[in-house]
Input
Amino acid sequence: MITNKEATSIKPQGRRVSRDLPRMTLAAHLHPHGMRVTPQKLAVFKVLQRDNYHPTPDMVFAEVRKQYPMVSLGTVYQILDQFAEIGVARRIFSGGNRQRFDGKRSPHAHLVCERCGRIDDIEDRSLEALTERFARKFDFQIRDHYFEFSGSCAGCTRRRKRRNRLE
Output
C-alpha cells in the first residue's frame, strides 16, 4: 500500500503535485487490482480522506452528488464495497449496525459512542506495540487489525447525567 507521503515523491510532469496527489494515491491502490481511477471513485476517495470523518454511504453519496449530480447511490455503494475489499477503506459498524467507512489507513483505533454514533480516532504507539507483542508471542504474521472501544462519549454522558439529576 502506498501512503500519501510515498506518493508525494511521484511528480507528474506539468501539473501541480498537490492537486494530483489524491489521484496518484488512489491509482496506486487500484491499479494492482486491475481497477482504474474514475471521477466518481476519486470523489468518493476524497470524501473518505477527510480527517476523523467516518461517513455513512448516504453521507458519501450526498457529498459526491454535489460534484457529480448524475451519480447513483448504487454506484457509491459499489465503490465503497470495492474500496473496503482492496483495503482503501475500512467498514465500521457503529451503534445500531449503521455502516460507516474510514479512509484513514494508518494504524489507529476507534472510540464509538453507542448512543449518538460518534466515532473518534485514537492514534497511540502503544497499540502498535501491543500488535507487535501479540505477533511475537503467538508467532503470528498479522496482516491487519482493528481496535474498537465502545461506550458513551463525553457529550452523551453529560446529557445522561443531566437527565438523571432532573428526574
Helices lie at 4-7, 17-30, 39-48, 57-67, 73-86, 125-137, 154-166.
